[in-house]
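Q: What structure does this chain adopt?
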Amino acid sequence: MLSPFISGFLIGGGLIIAIGAQNAFILRQGIRREHVFPLALICSLSDAALIALGVAGLGALIQLVPALLVGVTLFGIGFLLWYGWQAARRAMAPKAMELGESGPVPLGAAIRTCLALTFLNPHVYLDTVVLVGALAAPYAGLPRLAYAIGAMTASFAWFFSLAYGARVLTPVFRNPVAWRILDALIALVMVSIAGKLALWLFSR
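A:
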């Protein structure tokens, strides 16, 4: 039988490692080498806070009051569509963004975008609060704490690996075509996630 820490690590990692709005943003910033550490830290700490709330029992509350997710979903759909449009505009620009071609994004603006992509996405709550929280049910006391720490550790390992590992792709993205492809994929990811959220909302 897996230890609570390993179980939490595998569950947390399995839910976090997916192509999503947050991961696409961190990948892009990692390739550009802009604010890599603070953004990876924000994503990791945000996940850790949500995991702690889920393991503490907030997931059960959200399941009882689904209206809490509806407002976040509506904001999330709007934000994802806006961010996807921005990525599509970059992809369609006469000169796609090369590494260092445009000015750096201010730290404050990058942090605001990162927080919005994190907390305006209901999937974050469903994954970290509801699912991770629900799967903590078999544990109590110290094993429950170990489970939560395992899930949090997976988040830190993933976001820092993604942010700093993206630098390996820097030579590829010296070609403007690569930036166009990346931004086009980001746009598709954002719009597809917004579409899935809209379908989920209206199917309730």
